[in-house]
From TrEMBL:
It catalyses: [phosphatase 2A protein]-C-terminal L-leucine + S-adenosyl-L-methionine = [phosphatase 2A protein]-C-terminal L-leucine methyl ester + S-adenosyl-L-homocysteine. Its EC number is 2.1.1.233. This is Leucine carboxyl methyltransferase 1. It is an enzyme of class 2 (transferase).
């Protein structure tokens, strides 16, 4: 998914924005191989012959399936009387996949850089299957270059580092502070400075009294493997200015607990993998041969899913 960082360089922002295409391409590859089902990803990313390594495909599978399980649990507990906010959403297709399964919520809002939302708006506008899903016979879709407002679906361009603009966009998107709200972020906060991301998390905790946050992000960046990850991203012009919070699962927990969230839990993807349905693990391990299990272990120990909540009842929404 798309990431953020607190710098003024337009060129650097563009480098970060470009990671959205990389992540979308990886998801499309894994879906094409049968790791999970997503018939909407093809509308946002063109076919590619660039096949990804098996450990990358399994990594994206674990990420996608684990987050979907958590989202489904949240919707089930609230009986759909909730809203979802996907920050740094990129070309994520969750809204359409939920609709296909008959799972509805009161509101679904996606925030991202205008440079991304403008492209997503275009793809939705020109694709009948996508546009119909965000339309309602009693509600006209409002669309401009960077924003799309449907009945329950809102796509809005905003810089997450500017809290004043974020608050204004939240209001424009008809989000209700009193409604149970699920926030999603996949490799987003790490590209925002600690100061700015902390302000954002504190603001969410103060405004949304019944919120659950699901954060997928790097951890253990202090070892050799982590240093290589950092170096590779810097080579592309992407500095992880928020990496201070990504040193361990404990620092991931503390970033929430220190700024108003009443509880938090963090588990690296090795632990997440062990909690996924055994039948699904058995199925996907037959898709591709993985010669080097160590590569998968290294990858899984350097990413984690962290959940945090402002309402104690969401502490039960776990894998």
């Amino acid at each position: 998914m798309l990431q953020r960082r607190d710098i003024d360089s337009v060129g650097s922002d563009e480098a970060v924005i470009a990671t959205n295409d990389d992540a979308s391409s990886c998801k499309r590859c894994a879906v094409a191989l049968g790791y999970w089902s997503d018939r909407y990803i093809n509308y946002f990313i063109r076919s590619t012959t660039d096949r990804k390594a098996p450990e990358i495909n399994r990594g994206y599978f674990a990420r996608a399936v684990a987050i979907k399980i958590l989202v489904d649990k949240f919707i089930e507990v609230t009986n759909g009387n909730c809203q979802i906010v996907n920050i740094g959403a990129g070309f994520d297709t969750l809204y359409w996949r939920l609709g296909e399964e008959g799972k509805t919520v009161k509101g679904f809002v996606e925030f991202d850089f205008p440079g991304v939302t403008s492209r997503k708006c275009l793809y939705i506008q020109r694709t009948k299957q996508l546009l119909q899903a965000v339309s309602d016979e009693d509600y006209d879709v409002k669309l401009n270059r960077n924003n799309l407002h449907g009945h329950t679906y809102k796509l809005t361009g905003v810089d997450l580092r500017n809290l004043t603009d974020v608050e204004a966009k939240v209001k424009e998107s008809d989000l209700q502070y009193s409604l149970p709200t699920l926030f999603l972020a996949e490799c987003v906060l790490v590209y925002i400075s600690i100061q700015k991301s902390s302000q954002l998390l504190k603001w969410i905790a103060e405004k949304f009294k019944s919120a659950l946050f699901i954060n997928y992000e790097m951890v253990n960046l202090g070892d050799r493997f982590g240093e290589v990850m950092l170096s590779n991203l810097r080579t592309r012009g992407c500095d992880l200015v928020g990496s201070e919070a990504c040193q361990s699962t404990e620092t991931q927990r503390r970033r929430f607990l220190d700024y108003g969230w009443v509880g938090a839990d963090s588990c690296d993807m090795m632990g997440v993998w062990a909690r996924l349905p055994p039948e699904e693990i058995a199925r996907v391990t037959q898709i591709e041969l993985l010669d080097e299990q160590e590569l998968l272990s290294q990858l899984f120990t350097h990413y984690a899913i962290t959940t945090a909540w402002t309402d104690h009842r969401w502490s039960e929404v776990q894998l």
